[in-house]
Write a structure and sequence with these properties.
Layout: H1 2-16, E1 33-35, H2 43-46, E2 53-55, H3 56-61, E3 68-72, E4 76-82, E5 97-99, E6 108-110, E7 115-121, E8 128-131, E9 135-144, E10 160-169, E11 187-192, E12 196-203, E13 215-217, E14 221-229, E15 236-246, E16 256-260, E17 277-278, E18 287-293, E19 304-315, E20 327-330, E21 335-338, H4 348-351, E22 368-369, E23 386-387, E24 390-401, H5 403-460, H6 466-469
Parallel strand pairs: 13-24
Antiparallel strand pairs: 1-2, 3-4, 4-7, 5-9, 6-7, 8-9, 9-10, 11-12, 12-14, 14-18, 15-16, 15-19, 17-18, 19-24, 20-21, 22-23
Length: 471
């Protein structure tokens, strides 16, 4: 029976002439053949045969997809993980993967591609931020914590922690395809039709130059300058219609805090702990400056904020009104005062009802005809007949330092310095006492030596009685 079975096997191999055959009784194998789970491309053929023999040289020639891919977007990172995490053909469970120190769970599971996708904000899931002279680096980790599958007493894979990083430039825009944030950290500019450029910039304390850093201590004054580049347009006057602070670049996100509201009322100035105000007079009609004290959200531990302002322009010769104004609150007189125009245009800042004809601050007024703006520029075929006279501009991220924490560190440092100084004084006092004692001892010994020497000389000359010389 054994001989007959072996003969049938040989005949079968000869008929197939090229199939993969081996002697089931021969336990020696060539080093060039290894076992490997079937790939996704061979899923149809591997269903009938759970084993596959693949030449090792072929495996090295086939590029394997990366097990973890990261996309750094404007306000979030997207991490895609292949379930064959270790490249051994064994798919891990999606539930065993988490992101960050707070173990955020995946948002999508692709059964066809066997991938798991995580999406989280740059400051979510316990990520950390590092600031370098050129970059903002957000760090988190992909965690794999295996749980028992069939047998609750054993595990077949090891846990793993994969570091994840997203790098963003602090000074320039990024033009690569891998990372393309749509904001510039300290200077954000939006171009509208007909080449109107709205911008927000952080300025130094005397407004002479752009501020080189975006870091502020709590309560420190933030000098913000809004500008519009008019180029070929007639003279324009710029207004800050509204400004809202959020934790993300999305102005509609929560929590939020209104700095300017009601079509130009700097409502942040009403707080008792701030001196926020518009700067009057303007340096130019196309520029508006405001000062606001730095703050952070009390119910959130994150220390980055974004400020989104809605900027708009009117012809410079148009008088300011309820919808186009720049009003600051003066606590001394308990009044609202405009940068320009009559004081009555700020009266609605008290009630918050500054709309005209039912207009809301969230509804954009109509676009203006080009002829109201253009001067000495001929119309071109195909040009739009309307000009966008307003735009949203995002300033950020702004890094807010905890003044209380730094005060505690400074107080602790001062205590340590005082303690060290006190210990130094005590040690110095001890050294002075010891030095004084040594000096005094030397003086006494010197006096005794001088006295003995003098007495000896007197004895030799016979000037002293012999009885004294023998003492």
């Amino acid at each position: 029976m054994v001989v007959s079975g072996c003969l049938e096997l040989v005949v079968l191999c000869w008929v197939l002439s090229g199939g993969v055959c081996y002697n089931p009784w021969d336990f020696s194998r060539s080093d060039s053949a290894i076992w490997r789970p079937p790939s996704r491309a061979d899923a149809s053929s591997s269903q009938s045969s759970p084993w596959a023999w693949v030449d090792a040289s072929q495996i090295r020639a086939v590029p394997l997809p990366p097990p973890v891919m990261v996309q750094c977007k404007e306000a979030q990172m997207v991490v895609t993980v292949h379930r064959d995490l270790f490249g051994i053909g064994r798919l891990i469970k999606a539930a065993d993967l988490s992101l960050g120190s707070v173990a955020c769970q995946y948002v999508a599971l692709n059964e066809v591609e066997n991938t798991v996708t995580f999406a989280a904000g740059l400051q979510d899931c316990g990520s950390s931020l590092q600031m370098t002279p050129d970059s903002l680096i957000y760090r988190t980790s992909l965690n794999y914590t295996p749980t028992p599958a069939g047998n609750a007493a054993i595990l077949r894979t090891n846990p793993a922690v994969i570091p994840i990083e997203c790098h963003y430039p602090r000074k320039k825009n990024v033009s690569s395809k891998a990372v393309r944030p749509t904001w510039s950290p300290f200077h954000s500019t939006v171009s509208a039709e007909e080449r109107l450029h709205f911008s927000l910039r952080l300025m130094n304390d005397d407004w002479s130059a752009e501020r080189p850093s975006n870091g502020f201590h709590l309560g420190e004054a933030m000098h913000i300058q809004a500008e519009v580049t008019t180029e070929n347009h007639m003279a324009l006057r710029l207004f800050v219609d509204s400004c809202v602070a959020t934790l993300t670049p999305d102005k509609n996100s929560s929590p939020s805090y209104a700095i300017v509201d009601f079509n130009g009322c700097l409502v942040d100035g009403r707080s008792d702990d701030t001196t926020s105000a518009f700067i009057s007079p303007r340096p130019r009609q196309d520029t508006l400056q405001l000062v606001s004290d730095a703050f952070k959200f009390a119910a959130d531990a994150r220390n980055l904020i974004y400020i989104t302002c809605h900027l708009k322009v009117t012809p410079a010769d148009q008088a300011p009104d309820l919808l186009n104004k720049a009003c600051s609150f003066h606590k001394a007189g308990n009044i609202w005062s405009p940068v320009e125009g009559t004081r009555d245009i700020c009266s609605c800042c008290k009630t918050g009802n500054c709309g005209l004809l039912g207009w809301s601050r969230r509804v954009h007024p109509p676009r203006w005809p080009v002829r109201h703006f253009r001067r000495d520029v001929a119309s071109k075929p195909g040009n739009s007949s309307m000009v966008e006279a307003e735009s949203d501009v995002v300033l950020g991220p702004l890094y807010i330092l905890d003044e209380f924490q730094e005060s505690r560190d400074l107080f602790k440092y001062q205590i340590e310095v005082e303690k060290a100084a006190k210990n130094g004084i005590e040690e110095m006092s001890g050294l002075i006492v010891v030095a004084a004692a040594i000096i005094l001892a030397f003086i006494i010994l010197g006096l005794i030596f001088i006295y003995k020497r003098t007495q000896l000389i007197q004895c030799q000359r016979g000037r002293v009685p012999f009885t004294l010389c023998t003492m």
